[in-house]
Design goal:
about 0% strand; mainly alpha
């Protein structure tokens, strides 16, 4: 800490004042992984929804949901769906649920 009255000698910095005193040695991979695991919580986030029958195959609608978007962009149904207004989407959903008998 320098006094308010500075002289030319006090302007020169001492390297020991600048250097990092508590230098950490470089960790190896095991130490890094250990410190990462110590910092993690045990709780897992997100819910993985299990199928009723784990051996059952996926439906076409499930397959469509996970299909890469760029493969589906050019389809007419996808283009029309993006142009629909909110009211049209609501109407179509209601029709679909009525047909399925859930409404």
């Amino acid at each position: 800490q320098a006094s308010p009255e500075r002289s030319e000698e006090s302007e020169i910095l001492n390297p020991s004042n600048i250097e990092h005193i508590n230098k950490h040695k470089k960790q190896n991979k095991e130490e890094r992984l250990e410190s990462i695991k110590k910092g993690r919580s045990e709780k897992k986030f997100g819910i993985k929804k299990a199928k009723m029958d784990p051996h059952a195959s996926t439906t076409n609608t499930d397959k469509r949901k996970h299909k890469p978007f760029m493969m589906v962009v050019h389809k007419r149904s996808v283009r029309e769906r993006s142009k629909k207004s909110f009211a049209e989407k609501q109407r179509d959903l209601k029709k679909k649920l009525l047909r399925a008998g859930r409404y």
